[in-house]
Design a protein that fits this description.
This protein is 73% helix and 0% strand. The chain has 9 helices and no strands.
């Protein structure tokens, strides 16, 4: 866009109301997402062995690190909605730290995982899991993208991927609360891989939907 034209448009628009603090935006969005998560889980029905699973430290650690990934990615997306990243350019790397801890916990519970199991699981075509992850992600994802779009994001790929990672990580956590399947190969192929693919797709979505110039 021509610089002079941009300046003329900004002058014509006049003074704009300042954006709320990213923390305020994050809290409002997070509360709404958690309410939606609870309603979605109650509607679908928790896994029958949920009480037993809550006594499993690895299961609890998995949920905790994935929820921290989701929260930090959402916070990063909102910081990235500012041109200066709210003076925290490193914020986009924080979710990956929690993902490393999550992966370590997942590996501890997947001692017997091998290539044959992964291949067999991939042939089962259990597309209902990615479908539910996508369905859960859409409403909070649209809301988060709109919040980011209200700012002036410069790093569009990062903003889009962080927003998508946040909602898909919440969706992963939701599926672990609902589906009574702890097979490591299944979790890798039909839960983790869709989250990765959707996060990559979020990068492209960020490029085309978050552009403000």
């Amino acid at each position: 866009m021509n610089t002079d034209r941009l300046i003329d448009e900004l002058v014509a628009e006049g003074a704009q109301k300042p954006l709320p603090h990213p923390m305020k935006q994050a809290m409002i969005w997070l509360i709404g997402t958690l309410i939606y998560l609870a309603a979605f889980s109650v509607y679908m029905g928790f896994r029958a062995d949920i009480a037993v699973k809550f006594a499993d430290p690895l299961y609890i650690a998995e949920l905790v690190f994935m929820s921290l990934t989701a929260i930090s990615a959402g916070w990063a997306a909102l910081c990235l909605s500012r041109p200066d990243c709210f003076q925290m350019p490193w914020i986009k790397y924080v979710p990956f730290d929690f993902l490393v801890f999550w992966a370590a916990v997942a590996l501890l519970g997947a001692e017997n995982l091998n290539g044959a199991q992964i291949f067999h699981t991939a042939t089962l075509c259990q597309f209902d899991c990615p479908w539910h992850i996508l369905l859960f992600s859409l409403p909070p994802g649209i809301a988060l993208f709109l919040l980011v779009r209200k700012g002036a994001p410069v790093q569009l790929y990062w903003a889009g991927s962080m927003a998508t990672l946040s909602v898909t990580a919440f969706a992963y956590m939701c599926m672990r609360l609902l589906e009574m399947n702890d097979n490591p190969a299944h979790l890798l192929v039909w839960h983790t891989l869709p989250v990765m693919i959707l996060s990559l797709a979020g990068m492209l979505a960020g490029k085309f939907t978050l552009r403000w110039l």
